Amino acid sequence: MNLTHFSQQTKQEADALLLYGNVTEALSKYGKVVVTGSYKYDLMYDPDIDLVVLCDNPEKNSYQAFLDFINDRKFQKYQLGDFKKFPHKNRPHDIIVVLIHEYKGRRWEIEVWFKESLSDDQANLEKLILQASDEQKRIVLELKKQRDTAHISKNQLSSTTIYTGVFLEGKTVLEDFKLDLL
Fold it and tell me: CA 137, CA 155: separation in Å to the nearest integer?
């Protein structure tokens, strides 16, 4: 399988799903919508899309957006996670709305974080990714495929950990991340 082609195809599916659900437009009434993650950087392997809504009142806006999406009934499942009140390891201390939908034979998740501002870590990660070589990007896609094939969850080995491992530490194979999995 050509991973670059697969990644591009996955992004096209993501574009179609965002359009179908009118997601970006629906979220724009709550704040500034920022596209993040693998979708933004053309490093998609898994069927998930990461968005951030920057707003003054993340709690209120996330709850209202959650209800709006439920009322629109365009997705099969809806989740709301309050990691501000109930912090969790490896999760931002913010509120997330997750839209889940079966599309083209895959279970898609659109993760929408509601925040007051982007973290410095996100800005630093963006700089790393923008400077990455084509070979480094190929390695990232290969590692995401290996993670999937080995049934390693994104909570055990996040894409962010893969990015920093490849771009900063020169990691090239899944075994290089064993310590990160403990």
Answer: 21
The tokens 């053309």 sit on which residue?
42
> Which whole-number Å values give the CA distances from 33 to 22, 56, 78, 114, 117, in the listed order?
13, 13, 19, 9, 11
The two structure tokens encoding residue 141: 């896609």
Ranges under pLDDT 50 in the chain: 180-182
**Structural contact between residues 142 and 80, judged by C-beta atoms closer than 8 angstroms:** no
Encode pLDDT of 77-130 as tens digits. 999 999 999 988 778 889 999 999 999 999 999 999 999 998 888 888 888 898
Eight-state DSSP code of residue 86? S
DSSP assignment letter at 90: T
For 27, phi then psi, to 5°, come to: -75, -25
Residue 55 — φ and ψ, nearest 5°? Answer: -155, 165
